[in-house]
Design brief:
The complex is a heterodimer of chains A (110) and B (113). Chain A has no helices and eleven strands. Chain A has 110 residues and is mainly beta. In chain A, strands 2, 4, 5, 9, 10 and 11 form a six-stranded mixed beta sheet that branches. Chain A has a five-stranded antiparallel beta sheet with strand order 1-3-8-7-6, with no helix packed on it. Chain A is globular and about 45 Å long. In chain B, strands 2, 4, 5, 6, 9, 10 and 11 form a seven-stranded mixed beta sheet that branches. Chain B has a four-stranded antiparallel beta sheet with strand order 1-3-8-7, with no helix packed on it. In chain B, β7 and β8 form a beta hairpin. At the A-B interface, β5 and β10 of A face β4, β5, β9 and β10 of B.
């Protein structure tokens, strides 16, 4: 079983739609959680950290369920510029190395 | 404040040659991580270094790969006797001590002919 699993997609949605991504992780000792965004052939960029209480940043909402070892990302009112690969990332603590899911590819269509 | 810098951005090597990838962390960051991304795959952790110390190299292949982060100068990832399977994007990330947010450099794309 992969340490971090995501649906690779691709997701193709019309502009303005709401889209949700899910991710599961296997190590219950994981300490911190993130969503990164990666554009084609570029470096990953931090989108947002994910907390148990849930957190929102503009059109983006992230949620963590530690009991189910499940992380989600919701994008509302999607824009063309949201087209990218979204990476679910888990920090195991200790040496702080990040474990990445394989990413979910999203394309927003006009 | 300059971000994480990596060079070269693109590197082409023939099989059997050596590849040297350099990473300069963000100013004030003393922790460096190296990750590898094979085509169509996610990033995989390779090694974690602090100045003059390798903290965790559990993701490094046992042969041909080495990394260092000297007291002065950039971190270096060295791949000896490259093979075609080494073709990938190699990303470096840095953090400030005591935090958990990693900032990534633009990557070095290695192509082995």
């Amino acid at each position: 079983r992969k340490e971090v699993e995501q649906d690779p997609g691709p997701f193709n949605v019309p502009e303005g739609a709401t889209v949700a991504f899910n991710c599961t992780y296997s190590n219950s000792a994981s300490q911190s959680f993130f969503w990164y965004r990666q554009d084609c052939r570029k470096e990953p960029k931090l989108l947002m950290s994910v907390y148990s209480s849930g957190n929102e940043d503009g059109r983006f909402t992230a949620q963590l369920n530690r009991a189910s070892q499940y992380i989600s990302l919701l994008i509302r009112d999607s824009k063309l510029s949201d087209s990218a690969t979204y990476l679910c990332v888990v920090n195991l603590g200790g040496a702080q190395k990040l474990v990445f899911g394989q990413g979910t590819r999203l394309t927003i269509n006009p | 404040n300059a971000g994480v810098m990596q060079n070269p951005r693109h590197l082409v090597r023939r099989r059997g040659q050596e590849a040297r990838l350099r990473c300069s962390p963000m100013k004030g960051h003393s922790h460096v991580y190296w990750y590898r991304q094979l085509p169509e795959e996610g990033l995989k952790f390779m090694v974690y270094l602090q100045k003059e110390n390798i903290i965790d190299e559990s993701g490094m292949p046992k042969e041909r790969f080495s990394a260092e982060f000297p007291k002065e100068g950039p971190s270096i990832l060295r791949i000896q006797q490259v093979v075609r399977g080494d073709s990938a994007a190699y990303f470096c990330a840095s953090i400030e001590g005591g935090t958990d947010t990693q900032y990534f450099g633009p990557g070095t794309r290695l192509t082995v002919l």
